[in-house]
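Quick one: structure tokens for this chain, please?
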Amino acid sequence: MKKVKVGLVGASGRMGQEIVKVIEANPRCEVFYAFDREMKYDTKKAAAVDVWIDFSSPDALKDVLKRAADNKTPVVCGTTGFSKKEKDLLAQYGKKNSGVVVFEHEPGCCCS
């Protein structure tokens, strides 16, 4: 069985480290590309990602979505604190690409 290649944005953060543990415990998935802002982005490696999980920051949202859109890769976003403009950007991405799922513990959660 082919494993799902997960790209994780914000892998060194508290939640990112927990997500790594969950993915590693699942025999059908692998952390294929753990990415943080201090790292140089690897376009070739990112192209092989099956799904992105983003637990970074609202400031990184635009770059995360642009990079995922380059390969039409779905995004699962657990980042919180989005502005109305950022929520609209997430909704637009979900309509134009493979989809986006956002988990936010604030009013106004956006799911596409």
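The chain is about 35% helix and 20% strand.
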